[in-house]
Amino acid sequence: MERILVVGVTGAGKSTLARAVGERLGVPFHEMDALYYTGPDWAVNATIAEDVGRIAAGPRWIIDSLGYPEVRDQLWDRADTVIWLDYPRRVVMPRVLRRSLARSARREVLFGGNRESWRGWLSREHPAWWAWSQYAGRRRELRRRTGDARFAPLRTLRFTHPRATAGWLAGLAPAALRERRAGT
Domain ATPase AAA-type core, which positions (predicted)? Predict the structure, then answer.
């Protein structure tokens, strides 16, 4: 596992897991939303394809996303591992709601200096609405990609419950331990 995509629906815990796996394996973590949203009013990075291309060309990385359409194939073509958090709605929706409520209440600064706002809850683009409306389509896209012969060489780990993911992560040897075992 050198070039890893952590995929799933909004609220599955992709960023949290990607960060933890990156730390355990000593692989640089890149947060897709931070690469994608670079300015006020959720402005999209004009050089996203080039920026992600530089990361994807590298020997080791972990990214927390299926990939925005502009970079999706670029990432999937270069990845060697996909970790799919395929959790049910009853798991992800409470997570999305708690996260968005906390972000709105704390006025937490997010990507590009943006914040979730109380007014934003009325928008179809709000994470809670987005998670609900995109759930089925995102799962279909992930099923299609993980079953596509083009991506058959990818090692795919699919977890359907957070306990299974936590158990797998707990068994993942930290980078320092693997180095000691290898004698480096």
Answer: 4-38
Q: At 106, is the secondary structure helix, strand, or coil?
A: helix
CB within 8 A of 156, min separation 6: which ones? 81, 82, 84, 146
Contact between 72 and 66 under an 8 Å Cβ cutoff? The reply is: yes
Cα separation values, 49 from 44, 52, 87, 112, Å: 11, 5, 29, 17
Q: Distance between CA atoms of 41 and 48, rounded to whole angstroms?
A: 17
Choosing among 3.40.50.300, 3.40.50.150, 2.40.10.220, 3.40.50.2020, the CATH entry for 3-170 is 3.40.50.300
**Confidence (pTM):** 0.89
Task: Please tell me the distance from the alpha carbon of residue 3 to that of residue 44, in angstroms, as a whole number.
Answer: 24
Domain ranges of the chain: 3-170
What whole-number distance in Å separates Cα of residue 128 and Cα of residue 125? 8
pLDDT digit string, tens, across residues 131-155:
999 999 999 999 999 999 999 999 9
